[in-house]
Amino acid sequence: MEASMQAAGVIDPSVGLTDASGAGLARWLNDEYGELGYVSSNTDPVTFDDVAAEAAEGKHPLMIGGRGWYHWSGCSQYDSARDVLILKNPAGNWMGVGSEMDRDEFARLGAFSLVRLTCPATENAPPPPEQNYAPPGSVGSGILDAMHADGVEPSMPSAFLPLGASPAMAEWCIATDGTMYVWQIPMGALWKYPASG
Known about the structure:
The protein has 197 residues and is α+β, with helices and mostly antiparallel strands. It is 24% helix and 30% strand.
């Protein structure tokens, strides 16, 4: 990879990345990985809030480079509680910045540019369906209504008591939070037993 980047003029061992805007790196990524469905782009200049917002989404890899920092680093997350960017810094503690960067450091070491590598096919894909442990019709409506009111789902199909008896006297089912719901069929009454331990 490094040899390919040098051959394309993207990096030079004496100066590092040859285009401080990140446009050259984005172009190289598109040339090398575009056929695989990846799309790279750069933003120059970029603000701390711009980087924080994109890093917080966690959808794709980011790199940031500062002209005053004279360095590029991966940026994997944004810690909103501490207002810092979480870095994948290949140079340890370059110019006093290690694995995170705050607003003051960003301002002092800028102006900054950003390069992103996206995969539109996966980033825009619908979310996977929620796990369904109980096929439709395998839990009675009384228990389902009670579980939905409590914000939980069945973790299994219902079982009936006494076992093998017909008609059964009770239907029971365990929810995804461990609570056991028991529906007493003749009375239409519901009992809930929270998970123990």
